[in-house]
From TrEMBL:
Residues 675-835 form the AAA+ ATPase domain. GO terms for molecular function: ATP binding; ATP hydrolysis activity. SMART domains: AAA. Gene3D superfamilies: P-loop containing nucleotide triphosphate hydrolases. This is 5-methylcytosine-specific restriction enzyme B. Residues 934-968 are annotated as: Disordered. InterPro entries: AAA+_ATPase, ATPase_dyneun-rel_AAA, Methyl-DNA_Rec/Restrict_Enz, P-loop_NTPase. It comes from the Bacteria. It comes from Geodermatophilus nigrescens.
């Protein structure tokens, strides 16, 4: 690491001072905004009066516990106490966690521990010691997820705050969340470090009790005005961005961290304003809006010194944006990215429609001066632009005044945003205003895409043929004559099946149909007959049916369009929705067609979109609307630059190099996954199973959007994993239950929509759950892909697992739970071992160290030596030390020893519990000495005589030292 230059040192020093001042001013904003909430002010006064009495009572209970050492009585007394007003100790982080600790371990084991750790420490070092004791105990007694280490900060800080409230702020969930939403606090896997960072930050900002109330309020009211330091943050971020080396990367980690904190604070500042005022903006624009913001880092992995957040107009690329730079804050219209030539089109249009008091701002290209905007008056200067006005500092800081300005600007530019949306979706071919084609994809380009579709998608497949057969079968039952005698079974088959297009789960419609009486059934079939065979134009029949369908809850547009596609395959393309990610409007843009004008009726929009798509694709798929629809959906999910994708062999080789595993091995594992569709990686903890699984999943899927990770635990249920009913409040205020899909159902639906793309579900700790209970009938579907089964909550909707949905499970064998996996599950998965002592994983740590930390290769000798002993002692490879303990870019002898003592050694002690003589050999110094004596490399600071003496006296030291390791 290069030394910090004087200029960098100066910038960092002033940045630290500025950061603290800016945070204190922001806290003052929050407190001022909260003070205007009279109900909240009264609530705080009431709570504080109750807490004074509760604190006195709790301290009495603590002193009684310290006097008697009776943890059970203490926990019981606390359970009664915490239900009194103002205690705020009820819940999983407080009383429930305390009870878990009291009952954990050997009888009475936790009492001495709790008596110590619940006494407030004098300083941070004492806090670290108490945290370490508690967390070590938790890891020792933990079963599944309980007791959870993440709950330790609240328990300790709450009890410490009773004793010393100014030094030890309570780690309220709302306070932690608020500080993270301000960009001032990060979360790690170390509860100790997280709490001490939190405590230090709160001490710097003010009174812990006052801040606790303020952050509780802020969690629900995040917009309190723009920070007066926002522009200065941009200036300082620009200065930090100059402190990079010739390679374009930060020269100093401290500069990188300061830049990250600065950029994150800016991003959240605007994000809170946008999310806090979305309802007001939507009302002023008369459009639905969604919040969006820029990432804090750039494509070159440097942190931004500018920021923006916007209200995006639904169904349009345009947005109303807040844009902050070192020049100030602007509120402006952004045209977004529509199509080629979009900035020129919208810029010229904006010149004609520019409201009074507004001007153009040119956004400079990233390579020129990223983030910089140049005012160009009321003239469009070309390139990417904004149209808006600046925000005075005093207005920005006042939430009421800022809200009024935002609403005023939104009202002023609403017409301009509508014009942008109309320009994208409607191009008039004459004065009638009827939507015309923007210009379809050129014929040669479309032909190339069709050829690629037939090749990569493999069209037609057996599933395509099955879809056609189903369509013919159903169409015969939907004729005008057959509908006179039809029953609901044919309708249920069509709408609940994924064959010939999937309209989605139809639980609500099934419930409606089940409740129909004779008159209702007659009315329902009359509606369907009129839609399919009525004499009027199709768009008129659709409009009438859409209006009448409200009498049958759940009878939506996608269901009605599927019935039409089945009955009229020559006319209707099986692409059912109009809007949304997979809607016809989006599909039209993909092939260069303008979606229908929104001035048309809903039915007319459906028909016009359908006819234009069919007209464009008919020459390539004559008379085959199923192929046309499949081509469009394939195009929707086709990776950009598909023709330039990296060679698969190169991808495998690159991943093998990253994972320090042989290319042939990874190739074989990938082939096993594609062939069997289900794999389980099993082995001791810390062997990289989850890491490799996620990397392999990303490689096979080709896009992280097609990868999903879930972690099983003893409480995981079928409803969590697949689907189940969840309560919610209806618009009428009644409690109803809705079928909510879980991660498997969601990914299966996504995979079914893109059958030419692989999707991968990674199930971490797959053996922690009750698998037969969690999987249910999915156990059948895992083996018999693309066959249908009726699931627990869909007795009338057949479900199937797509062939392109792959599953990778990980299984920790330290608890021998792999032996509990039944034969049925074993048959459906292939099991891939991850054992540190066996190829190819035996060389992973050594290879990583040789490449990243060559001076620490001795660690590989140590781990290999100890693992060999553990295999002998424990009768197998399932309880070894994984290499992940030592994948540390800053690895040193000190860090190795710390990791050994607080991670590796407790793991070994769990396996050799009660075998004290054998445990002695695995203390750090003894283990290193034994490894060196066996021919392994020694640490750089290792003293050879000590190593030799320790190795020679290995069998005698226990008695002579009373079990104490040499060197301690």
């Amino acid at each position: 690491m290069s030394e910090t230059t004087p200029s960098a040192s100066t910038v960092l020093d002033t940045q630290a001072e500025f950061e603290l001042e800016a945070r204190r001013v922001k806290v003052a904003q929050i407190l001022a905004a909260q003070a205007k909430d009279a109900e909240r002010t009264a609530e705080i006064a009431h709570v504080e009066s109750e807490r004074v009495e509760r604190r006195t009572e709790a301290l009495q209970l603590l002193h009684a516990f310290w006097s008697t050492g009776d943890a059970a009585t203490f926990a019981s007394a606390m359970e009664q106490w915490c239900r009194r007003p103002g205690a705020s100790f009820v819940g999983p982080n407080g009383q429930m966690f305390l009870k878990q600790l009291v009952s954990a371990g050997a009888p009475g084991e936790s009492a001495e521990l709790l008596a110590d750790v619940l006494k407030a420490p004098e300083d941070d070092a004492g806090a670290v010691e108490k945290f370490t004791r508690l967390l070590t105990f938790i890891e020792k007694v933990r079963q599944g997820g309980h007791p959870a280490p993440a709950r330790a900060p609240f328990l300790l800080s709450y009890v410490w705050a009773l004793q010393d409230p100014d030094r030890w702020p309570v780690a309220w969930t709302s306070a932690l969340t608020s500080l993270r939403y301000l960009g001032w606090l990060s979360k790690s896997d170390d509860p100790t470090r997280d709490y001490l960072d939190f405590a230090e930050l709160v001490r710097q900002l003010g009174n812990p009790q006052e801040l606790g109330h303020a952050f509780f309020w802020f969690e629900k009211h995040r917009f309190v005005g723009i920070s007066p330091h926002l522009t200065e943050r941009c200036r300082r971020g620009r200065a930090l961005s100059q402190l990079v080396g010739t390679d374009g990367h930060y020269r100093d980690p401290a500069v990188r961290e300061a830049s990250r904190l600065n950029a994150t604070a800016m991003a959240y500042e605007l994000w809170h304003a946008v999310t806090g005022l979305s309802a007001e903006v939507a009302a002023a624009l008369k459009h639905d809006v969604s919040a969006a913001a820029n990432p804090v880092d750039t494509k070159t992995h440097l942190y931004r010194w500018w920021a923006w957040a916007s209200w995006r107009v639904t169904s349009s690329p345009a947005s109303l944006r807040l844009h902050a730079t070192d020049q100030g804050l602007w509120i402006a219209v952004s045209p977004g990215h529509g199509r080629q030539g979009w900035f020129e089109e919208t810029g010229r249009l904006a010149e004609k429609k520019l409201p009074l008091g507004y001007e153009f701002f040119q956004l400079l290209p990233f390579d020129d001066d990223p983030g910089r905007i140049i005012p160009t008056g009321r003239s469009f200067a070309g390139g990417e632009f904004l149209v808006g006005r600046d925000v005075p500092d005093d207005v920005a800081a006042d939430p009421t005044a800022f809200c009024q300005l935002v609403v005023q600007v939104a009202s002023d530019v609403a017409s301009l945003l509508n014009n942008f949306a109309a320009l994208l979706t409607t191009v008039a071919d004459d004065d009638t205003g009827v939507a015309a084609l923007e210009g379809p994809i050129p014929e040669d380009e479309l032909g190339s895409l069709v050829a690629e579709f037939r090749s990569t998608r493999g069209y037609p497949t057996a599933k395509d043929e099955q879809a056609r057969i189903k369509q013919l079968e159903w169409a015969a039952q939907l004729t005008d004559e057959e509908l006179d005698v039809a029953d609901l079974s044919v309708i249920r088959q069509i709408v609940n099946s994924g064959s010939y297009g999937a309209p989605g789960p139809q639980s609500r419609l099934n419930t409606t149909l089940n409740g129909l009486d004779a008159a209702g059934l007659e009315e329902f079939f009359a509606l369907i007959r009129d839609l399919l065979w009525g004499p009027e134009a199709l768009e008129d029949r659709l409009d009438r049916t859409f209006a009448d369908a409200s009498r049958f809850p759940g009878l939506g547009e996608s269901v009605l369009l599927k019935l039409l596609a089945v009955a009229h395959p020559q006319r209707v393309v099986p692409a059912f929705p109009l809007k949304g990610e997979m809607g016809k409007a989006r599909l039209m843009r993909l092939v260069g067609l303008a979606p229908p004008s929104t001035t048309l009726s809903r039915g007319a929009q459906h028909v016009q979109a359908n006819d234009r798509l069919r007209e464009l694709l008919e020459p390539h798929f004559p008379g085959d609307t199923w192929a046309q629809g499949q081509f469009l959906y394939w195009l929707r999910t086709r990776p950009e630059g598909a023709a330039e994708q990296v060679d698969d062999g190169d991808s495998i080789a690159a991943l093998a190099e990253e994972l320090h595993l042989p290319t042939d091995y990874l190739t074989e594992v990938r082939e096993m996954l594609l062939e069997k569709r289900q794999l389980v990686f099993f082995g001791p903890p810390g062997t990289g199973k989850t890491y490799v699984a996620r990397k392999l999943a990303a490689l096979v899927a080709g896009d992280l959007s097609r990868v999903r990770l879930v972690q099983f635990h003893p409480s995981t249920s079928y409803e969590d994993f697949f689907e189940g009913y969840r309560p919610e409040v209806s618009p009428e205020g009644q409690l109803v239950y809705r079928l909510v899909p879980g991660p498997l159902a969601r990914l299966a639906e996504q995979a079914a929509q893109s059958p030419h793309l692989q999707h991968v579900l990674v199930i971490d700790e797959i053996n922690r759950a009750n698998l037969p209970k969690v999987l249910g009938e999915l156990l059948f579907l895992l083996e018999y892909r693309e066959q249908q089964a009726f699931t627990l909550y869909r007795p009338e909707e057949p479900f199937e697992l797509p062939a392109n949905l792959l599953v990778i499970g990980t299984m920790n064998t330290a608890d021998r739970s792999i032996a509990l996996i039944d034969a049925a599950l074993r048959r459906r998965f292939q099991f891939v071992p991850f054992f540190p002592s066996e190829p190819p994983h035996d060389g992973v740590l050594r290879s990583w160290l040789e490449q990243r930390r060559p001076e620490a290769v001795w660690v590989a000798d140590l781990v290999d030596h100890v693992n060999a002993q553990l295999v002998d002692l424990l009768g197998g490879p399932h309880l070894q030390i994984g290499p992940s303990h030592f994948f540390d870019p800053e690895l040193s002898s000190k860090r190795v020893k710390r990791s050994w003592q607080y991670s590796v050694q407790p793991f070994i002690e769990d396996q050799l519990w009660g075998r004290n003589d054998e445990l002695l050999r695995f203390g750090f110094e003894r283990a290193v000495a034994s490894s060196v004596a066996a021919g392994g490399a020694a640490p750089p600071d290792w003293t050879s005589p000590l190593a030799a003496a320790a190795a020679a006296s290995e069998d005698d030291d226990a008695a002579s030292t009373g079990g104490t390791e040499p060197g301690r």
